[in-house]
Amino acid sequence: MPTGQSTPRINRSVVNIVFVCLITRIVFFGFVHPWTADKEENVVLQSDAWGYHMLARNILEHGSFSIEMDQVPNSSRTPLYPGFVAAVYAVFGYKPWVAICVQMVLDALACLLLFLTLFRLFDYRVGLIAAFFYAIDPMLILYSSATLLSDSLFVGLVVVAFYWFSRGFKADSSGKTVVYYGVCGFFMGLATLCRPISQYLPVVFIVFLLVWYRKQWREGLRYAVVFMVIFAVTLLPWYIRNYKTFGHFVFSSASYQNMLVGYVAPMEMIRRNQSFNEVKASLLEEAEQRMIADGLDPETMDGWEKGKYYRPLAMSYIKRDPVLFGKTYLYGVMYLFTSLNTTVFSEKLGITMPEANIKGTHNVIDLVKNFIAKKGVAGVVMALVIAPLFLVAYLGAVLGFFVSWKKYNRYIIVLCAVIIVYFAALTGVKGMARFKLPAIPFYLAFTGIGLSYLRDRFLRH
After folding, report:
1. Range of 210's domain?
2. pTM for the complete prediction?
3. Is residue 282 part of a domain?
4. Among 110, 160, 267, 455, fewest CB within 10 Å belongs to which?
């Protein structure tokens, strides 16, 4: 059973793919031209991006981790991405487009590290194919080259952590192994400081280490402890900050509101036949009314205090109609992987295109008809470019999973599959394409395996 190469090599093909990765992002960046004042205000600094921008500015100007100076310090955002943007601003001034340029370069480096990782765990061709699809993936291109959002940096840090994991897995000595797993824990910690969604992912790696090294259980336990301790130490300063600032030894308050807005809102959109923003506003208002009824002022409450109201309210809606919640959850995961995100693409490119109302539509034919009617020519053209790429990647991944079971290390295969499920399960209910980004490197591993297998079969015939 092949288990990959211990010393990956970089040749011209690899360099060309990394070059393609960078060029695709530069080209899309050029079409968006976010350096202009109009695009910066109306396209780049929208929604969450505005919050990151203001956090970075206030870090530099006031040493405060808050979006507005008259607000209490922010309890939901984690520090790494605002700190990254602030570091760019400190050198180049308040220019979001420069931060995006840095993102593009880092994403190209992530493409290279993905190749090296999969070369080490599987083989050269698997790594090459996966890196190529990473280079041309429309969602990775979009969010690395046209948004001031944490997604691209987060994906890069997850890939870096996985790279060091692969080095530990293939190391030829116990000393190197423990160091590499420790570095993996550090970068997993940085990824979690970028986006809290990965805070439970170390459990997956720890279980893997304990199972894989079960015959040398002392070594496995040592690796797991080192990994976990370094991960925890990386997060510790932020825990201490939250305890000193809010009196709560908790990492982030985002999960409380996400449970209400992210998990319940999609279900209520169907039941109420309203838009996401309408449902979100209604749910938050309902929670605030409960706070006021208890004699509290929502304006002075921090995220954890509000969370005492968000979570019970969310659970009451879920318990009220668990069947609808389950269906919405499954549909959300489906949309996570099938959404072409043409509305976001059009917004970045300055093309007027209404949002297709597909959230309450579960018939495939109706979905297609609705899409064509709403999106028009521009949307259909985008779909004809994006959909075939997704189709090839997904079909290759499905084939690759079954092929890999007999050809490669099954424990690594399970690990990759569990990581995909982890990200899909925690964010899939929202059905937003950007939330599938951290799963992309892992399912592209299967795409590489599947397409490599097809190539070999074709050449044999």
Report:
1. 152-194+200-250
2. 0.92
3. yes
4. 455
